Structures are given as C-alpha cells and as structure tokens.
Amino acid sequence: MSDEGRSWIARLTDAALDRAGWGVHTARDVAEEVKVALRAMATPGGVRGVAMEAAWLTAHAVLYPWGAITEQLRPDGHYRHYRTDGLPLVQRGLVVSAMEAAGTPIVLVHGIGDNRSAFAVLSGALRRRGFGVVHAINYSVLTALTGDVRRSAALLGAQIERICEQTGSDQVHVVGHSLGGLIARYYVQRLHGDSRVRTLVTLGTPHSGTLAAYLLPTPLTRQLRPGSELLEELAEPCRSCRTRFVVVWSEMDQVIVPQRNARLEHSSLLVEEHQIRDSGHLSLPVDTRTLHVVVTAITRSDDLSTHPIAAGGEAFRAPDTTDGHS
C-alpha cells in the first residue's frame, strides 16, 4: 500500500479515537498496529489469507440462506451408548482416548449479522473427528440493530440449559466467533455460566472493543466500542471463574481494530492465547489452525496445567502473562 494510503488510514484512526476520547499517544499506537496488519498482508501467508477471506466470503454468501434455518439438536448418536465398532478410525480413537470430551456437547455461537453458516466447515470437521453433539445456534439477524449483549447472553444460557437437558450432559464447550464470543463470555463471567461451560474458545472477539463499532450507531455497536459500559463491566474484578478461555486472534483481522483488542487479559480468568498472523476475520472459523486449537483445547479441558497449543506453529504468549495464562 502507498504512503498516501497508510496516511489516510492513520488519519481515520486518529479521528475515531478522538471521538472516543482517546489520546494522541494511543492513536499512534493503533496506527502502528494497522501498519502491522498491512505488513502481514504483504507476506506470502498474508496473500493466501486475503485470498482465503475472499473465497470464504463468496462461499458464505451461498451458504447464508441455508444457515438461516434453525438447526435441530440431535442428541442421539454413537456416544449415547459409547459403541465404537461402527466408527471410523479417527472417531474411534477419540472416543477411546477422550470419551468425556467426545461426549460433551459443543455449542457454536456466530457473530453479528451472521448465522450458523459461519460454522459450516468447523462443525463438519468436529463431527468427523468424533465429537458426538455439535450444535450451532442462531440469534436474530436484527441483533446488530436492536440487540443487547446482556439479553443475548441470558438467551444463550437458556439454550445451553435445554441442550444439557436433552443430551443428559452436565456441561458444554462453546466456540464463539466475533460477537458470539463476547455474548458467551458475558454468560460465563456475569451470569454464572461457568457452571455449565467447561471451555470457551473465542475467535476474533472484541474483548476490548473495536473502532469498527463507530461505523454503525446502534445500541449494540455502542456496547462494542472501546471503553463502553459493558466492556468496563466485564473488565471489573469478579469471582473466580471455572471456565477455561482459549482466545484466538489474528494480526490481519480487518474488523477488530486494533487487532490486539481481540486478546483477553483478566486477573480472574484462566486464559490461553493463540495468535494467527495471516487470517482474516471472516475466515477464522474455517482456518485449519483454528480447528487444531479448538480440538486440542477441548480434549485437554480437564487438564489445567500449562500446555501451549501451537496454531500452525504460531502460538503466542503474551508478554504480561505467565506460562501462557493470564
């Protein structure tokens, strides 16, 4: 990108931060992160990432109408009786080596303006690897205009209760993309959802907000702005949380600005963080490195000792954390 293009981005960032009441020093820091993203795009991996983002955007547009149909929960299956004789080798291995992980439902929560089609690739990959119940939920497409994170979190909790009742499971794992991760975090952290959610994996979630939220002035997007009342509430000290958080973020995320706002640092939460350098926001759920992180985190969810999980060789340890946890 030309110097003129970089200057335009820097001016736009400064203006947004000024409206948010942030200082010039912070604006310069964000501008530096924008440059990091641009450099990531200029690498061979970044070029592949841009191509993947464009390809998935096209495929997603085709799948979107299908994803608007609510998925019916199918609790019956191989794992109800733990029979392995009819399973493929990969699935059989998971059931034998990690039976509890294989039988624990996985709940997928999509992002703003999206639906369960965002997880068309991830859900199929998880089922092929032997996980018995993988359920993607939908919330209203009007959430961007009329939604509220707190209300959505309460509705998510009610859905998880129904899933547990229908499957006979005491707990679930949750994977949330973008806004879906923030909704799940509020449920876990503020609505006592940690008694139900064993592992929460967030993909490109604006844990500290995003400047992109200034583009649409709605009650929901105001909650997603850096320093919002909702985000300040989540940042406050809270009681000990039993859920393990696994955070995946990308240097090339074009929706979470600055990209580091998809990281999660909280003294009361157990957080494992993974950085992917060259994946776009929409394609995070279809990235094979994301699948590796999800599968490994879920199968290790009962082991709270340190296990760095490499996202395609790009595991990231935050400088302010110890042994990969914050």
Task: Identify the notable features of this structure and list them briefly.
326 residues; alpha/beta; six-stranded parallel sheet; 13 helices; 6 strands; disordered C terminus
Can you offer a commentary on this structure?
This protein is of the alpha/beta class and about 325 residues long. Helices cover about 45% and strands about 10% of the residues. Strands 2-1-3-4-5-6 form a six-stranded parallel β-sheet, with helices on both faces. α10 (about 180-190) links the parallel β3 and β4 (about 195-205).
Give the topology:
Elements: H1 3-20, H2 24-42, H3 44-67, H4 78-81, H5 89-97, H6 99-103, E1 106-109, H7 120-128, E2 134-137, H8 143-146, H9 149-167, E3 172-177, H10 179-190, E4 197-203, H11 219-223, H12 229-235, E5 244-250, E6 270-276, H13 288-299
Parallel strand pairs: 1-2, 1-3, 3-4, 4-5, 5-6
Helix pairs in contact: 1-2, 2-3, 9-10
Brief sketch in words of this structure:
This protein has 326 residues and is α/β, with parallel strands linked by helices. The chain has helices spanning 3-20, 24-42, 44-67, 78-81, 89-97, 99-103, 120-128, 143-146, 149-167, 179-190, 219-223, 229-235, 288-299; strands at 106-109, 134-137, 172-177, 197-203, 244-250, 270-276. It is 45% helix and 11% strand.
Mean pLDDT: 81
Strand content: 5-15%
Helix proportion: 40-55%
The total of helices stands at 13
Report the strand count: 6
